[in-house]
Amino acid sequence: MSRNSKKPADMSVLFHSSTGTLAQIAKKANSLTKLADIVRQICPDLPEQGYQLGNVKDKTLTIEVANSVWGQRLQFERNRLAQAFSQASQGLISHIDIKVMPFLAHQRRQQENITEKLAEKRQASAKKVIPAQAGEQLLQAAEHAPASLQAKIARLAALANKNNQQK
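RE: above sequence
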């Protein structure tokens, strides 16, 4: 009786297969990325936070903008965008629907605030210092540890002493 192979399966096959949900999602994400590049080429003054591409439904692409100013800017370029989208999608997209979504800017600000808070927490945790008393306790524990571990604990205790001397 032969054993089953424990070799891991390559999951990229799921993305590159022509059928299946993941393949369809990957294909749609790639096409939306290409369409976003077209918007950036035609309207280079439009900030990335000012818009996002919505869904494609019945040959109509929905572009969601954060405020009416950017919506008006896209209105001026509507024909050029529709023509470029039609060429890029081989006729699958022929119309553009521009919708103003004021909460879009609010959502982006919240996401930026969350990432800033996470970065601050990482910086705060990186600056933690080992107190001198802990360094002494580490040296005491190193006396009873194996030789390989003893050297590592001694280096850690030396770091604690170094940090406390700098203060």
